[in-house]
Specification:
This protein is mainly alpha-helical. About 45% of the residues lie in helices and about 5% in strands. About 0% of the residues are buried.
Length: about 180
């Protein structure tokens, strides 16, 4: 703190504060001043480096105001771009709007890609059981003779000989087209 109760601050920081005050910026964090100072110093260093390159290219031993102006102009041209004039934009809009929009092929709603290109196609299998007659199968004399000859029949043969409920598998290939 200085004698008048003010902080001791570098001259550049005071200038940044005055710039903020002149732009009606009254409330800001203290580190904003430091960030502006860092940006300011980096910009000046870049401009002076470019000016030195231009001076050396011209064969001069010192940097003069023309080198600095050229460096600033090149920095402005590469960093900032001006929008095109309003007349140019209006002419461009007029020429672009002459081309009509394409007609919509689809009906109302959100246009979706073809079904073969979506992941919502059915990709599952259904097991549909076949129906058999409700009458039990009749035993034949051959079955009785086999049972008498072999008291311990082969379980796989017995299972094969018995009527079984068979199922039919139905599957839908991915990307198949369905009639509508």
């Amino acid at each position: 703190m200085a004698d008048g109760g003010e902080e001791v601050m570098p001259k550049d920081a005071k200038i940044v504060k005055e710039l903020l005050k002149s732009m009606s910026v009254d409330e800001y964090e203290p580190r904003v001043v430091n960030q502006f100072l860092e940006l300011w110093y980096r910009y000046v260093a870049d401009v002076l480096t470019d000016a030195q390159v231009y001076s050396e290219h011209a064969g001069k031993s010192t940097i003069d105001s023309d080198d600095v102006k050229l460096a600033i102009q090149s920095k402005v041209n590469s960093s900032f771009s001006q929008p095109p004039p309003r007349e140019v934009l209006l002419e461009l809009a007029k020429s672009r709007n002459k081309i009509p929009l394409p007609k919509s092929i689809t009906g109302p709603g959100i246009p979706l890609p073809p079904e073969q290109d979506t992941l919502i196609s059915p990709n599952y299998q259904l097991a549909i059981p076949k129906r058999h007659n409700s009458q039990p199968p009749e035993e034949t004399e051959d079955d009785e003779e086999i049972a008498e000859l072999n008291p311990n029949p082969d379980p796989s043969r017995v299972a094969r000989d018995l009527p079984q409920e068979t199922s039919q598998r139905v599957s839908f290939p991915l990307g198949a087209k369905h009639p509508r």
